Structure formats: structure tokens, C-alpha cells
């Protein structure tokens, strides 16, 4: 069955305010897809357009190729899991799961069959008769998933469903959610401001900022090849050096970073000489060992933290630019203390140069 979701040139306006700028995006059938972005960027608005709680001002949402204009929320092949889960506290687990089926007139035997199957799927086979109030946070989470799946949606919409859980449980539930998605083959559309969640679970992620989709890619591509300065600074940690493009040699871009000197990186998108640009280097790509003539800078160590396999350094260049560095513990030497001066370096291929830099 086609469970793809197409945002066909949708725009969402609230009065004069454009919450979602024109977006065209196809989410494939059976994909685990996330919208990632800071608070207020429009994630919930996108989810509400898909579920039918909001009608796009322009364009259309298509599910399985079918135009959803005029189809009310309760008639769409979607199910939603909310941040607060919205379980019925005075009902048993089975009653919660079966609720949607009961509303649809499904008989008791088939309802029980469905809830038994779903409790098996979410690894809580013996809890049908338990009261919801007696469950732990993680168990409630799984029941919310089972309840949402009971009505056999083609698309499951998840609105930051892990945000109320503690860190350890949240990390565990990521694996579980991914596993449930794999077993059911349903399209999962997940919204979050937590990049760890988006990157670990998703096949693809759309990074959003101020109502605009900035980049759609698989997690590794997003991390390694960000196409906008917003994505480069929002996804993972990054060091940003603003400057202007001095030279272009094929894909290698020389950025004049003022007093810091000339730094070289791989160009992303169309770039021209003289243009303002930002060069990004990940903390783990900065080395203590001189790797390339020219790509180096002298810093003062401000803080050093031992994290086991690696060390993190907070450093500052002579010109007051702060820098995050991550190095293997094997590179540690006893003279690396706060106040010490060291030289850092990186490979050209590990830095990316992106036009602009207003978000940095
Ligand atoms: N009904 C509405 N009327 C007017 N403005 C709205 C309405 N709903 C959302 N907005 C605005 O649209 C923008 C996007 O909101 P949305 O809730 O989609 O963001 P979000 O990324 O989900 O944020 P959060 O992570 O904080 O939930 C915000 O500026 C919000 O104030």
C-alpha cells in the first residue's frame, strides 16, 4: 500500500504571518522521517497540516497519492502521538488501545485480538488489564504507540513523544521506536528539536528554520555535507570562521578570515570570489599535529575536560575567537593545561565553506 506523504507546494499563513514558506517534499512509503528545528520553526504546523487539523493556505497534502483537501482529520489514514501521550488514566491498558476501534464499531473479539497483537509488538504482553496510572513512563509511551497503531494508520505522526522521559529512557525508546517502525513498515513522521533523536532514528531528516525547510537528507549527509550555514551550526557542534572568499581552486575555497589568516575548505553550492562566507570545522576534525601547511592557528587553552576515550578543549585564538576541539586521549600531554599555548591544524577536505553567515 502506498503510504507516501507529499507536501505539494504547501504554504501556511496565520493572518499576515507565514508560518510555513512554500515547501515541496515527498516522504516515501515506510520511511522514518523527521522534521528537526528549533522552537517555533513550524514543525507542529507541518504535522497539523498532514493530520488535517490545519488546512494549508496554498498547495495540498497528498497521502498515498490522494489529495487530502476536504478530508477531515478523523477520515485521514493517519494517527498521532502527542507529547503528553493523552492516554485515558482511568481505563485499563487494553481499553486504551481498543478505544479507537470501539469508536469505529469493531466487535469485542476483534478488538481483543488487535490489542493482544499490539501489546506483543510493544513488548508488554501481560499488561492488558493493568490500569494506565500504574505504568511507568516508558510503559505509558509504548501503550500510546499501541493505541495509535490500533486503528491501522498508514502514517504515524509523532509530536516529540519522548520529551517527557528521562535521558536514559529516552535513549532506550529511540531504539524501540525504530524497531516498531521496522516491524510495522508504516511511515513514521517525527518532529523534534532534539538532533540526537532525529539523527539516530531517521532514514531522512528535514532541517527547518523560521518556516523554511533548509535541507532534506540522511543523517550522515546532514552532518558531513550541510548545505546552509544554519544546518552546519544547528546539527552537531561546529566551529565557524567568518570571512570573504579570496580564491577558488576547483572545489577548494580559500577564505580570508582577517587576522586569523587564510583558511581553506571544500565549497558548498555556488560561491564567487569576494563573497562573504563561513568556514566550518567540526571539533573532531581539529588536530594538535600540523597536518597541512597554512591551515593552522595558535590558541590558548581555556578549559580541558577528560571524557574517557577523548578530551574536549575549549580554546581561544589570539584574536578572541573561541574554539571547541575534540582529540583522542592518546594525544594528551601533561603540558596541556589552562593557559597553555598550542597550535591546531586541520585537513582542507574536513572543512566546509558556505556562503553567508548570518545565522552563525
Ligand atoms: N494558530 C496559530 N495562529 C497564529 N500563529 C501560529 C498559530 N500556530 C502556530 N503559529 C506560529 O507559527 C510558528 C510555528 O509554530 P509551530 O507550533 O509550528 O512551531 P514548532 O516548531 O512546532 O515549535 P515548538 O517546538 O515550540 O512546538 C510560530 O511562530 C507560532 O507562533
Automatic annotation (TrEMBL):
SMART domains: AAA. Residues 5-235 form the ABC transporter domain. One of its GO terms (molecular function) is ATP binding. Signal peptide: none annotated. SUPFAM superfamilies: MOP-like, P-loop containing nucleoside triphosphate hydrolases. InterPro entries: AAA+_ATPase, ABC_SmlMolc_Importer, ABC_transporter-like_ATP-bd, ABC_transporter-like_CS, Mo/tungstate-bd_C_term_dom, P-loop_NTPase, Transp-assoc_OB_typ2. Keywords: ATP-binding, Nucleotide-binding, Transport. It holds the Pfam family TOBE_2. This is ABC transporter ATP-binding protein. The lineage of its organism: Bacteria, Pseudomonadati, Pseudomonadota, Gammaproteobacteria, Oceanospirillales.
Amino acid at each position: 500500500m502506498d503510504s507516501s506523504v507529499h507536501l505539494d507546494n504547501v504554504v501556511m499563513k496565520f493572518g499576515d504571518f507565514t508560518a510555513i514558506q512554500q515547501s515541496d517534499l515527498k516522504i516515501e512509503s515506510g520511511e522514518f522521517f523527521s522534521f528537526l528545528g528549533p522552537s517555533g520553526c513550524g514543525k507542529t504546523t507541518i504535522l497539523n497540516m498532514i493530520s488535517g487539523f490545519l488546512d494549508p493556505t496554498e498547495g495540498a497534502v497528498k497521502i498515498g497519492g490522494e489529495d487530502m483537501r476536504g478530508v477531515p482529520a478523523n477520515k485521514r489514514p493517519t494517527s498521532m502521538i502527542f507529547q503528553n501521550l493523552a492516554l485515558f488514566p482511568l481505563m485499563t491498558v487494553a481499553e486504551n488501545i481498543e478505544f479507537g476501534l470501539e469508536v469505529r464499531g469493531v466487535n469485542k473479539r476483534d478488538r481483543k485480538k488487535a490489542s493482544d497483537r499490539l501489546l506483543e509488538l510493544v513488548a508488554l504482553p501481560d499488561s492488558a488489564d493493568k490500569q494506565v496510572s500504574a505504568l511507568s513512563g516508558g510503559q505509558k509511551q509504548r501503550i500510546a504507540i499501541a493505541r495509535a497503531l490500533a486503528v491501522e494508520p498508514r502514517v504515524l505522526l509523532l509530536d516529540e513523544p519522548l520529551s517527557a522521559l528521562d535521558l536514559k529512557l529516552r535513549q532506550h525508546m529511540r531504539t524501540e521506536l525504530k524497531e516498531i517502525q521496522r516491524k510495522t513498515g508504516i511511515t513514521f513522521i517525527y518532529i523534534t528539536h532534539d538532533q540526537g533523536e532525529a539523527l539516530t532514528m531517521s532514514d531522512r531528516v528535514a532541517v527547518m528554520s523560521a518556516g523554511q525547510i533548509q535541507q532534506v537528507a540522511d543523517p550522515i549527509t546532514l552532518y558531513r555535507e550541510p548545505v546552509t550555514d544554519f544546518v552546519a551550526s544547528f546539527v552537531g557542534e561546529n566551529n565557524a570562521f567568518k570571512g570573504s572568499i579570496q580564491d577558488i581552486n576547483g572545489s577548494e575555497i580559500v577564505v580570508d578570515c582577517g587576522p586569523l589568516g587564510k583558511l581553506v575548505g571544500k565549497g558548498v553550492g555556488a560561491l564567487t570570489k569576494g563573497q562573504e562566507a563561513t568556514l566550518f570545522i567540526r571539533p573532531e576534525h581539529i588536530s594538535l599535529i600540523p597536518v597541512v601547511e597554512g591551515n593552522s592557528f595558535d590558541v590558548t587553552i581555556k578549559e580541558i575536560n577528560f571524557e574517557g576515550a577523548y578530551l574536549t578543549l575549549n580554546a581561544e585564538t589570539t584574536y578572541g575567537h573561541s574554539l571547541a576541539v575534540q582529540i583522542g586521549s592518546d594525544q594528551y600531554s601533561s603540558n596541556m593545561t589552562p593557559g597553555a599555548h598550542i597550535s591546531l591544524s586541520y585537513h582542507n577536505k574536513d572543512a566546509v565553506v558556505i556562503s553567508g553567515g548570518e545565522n552563525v
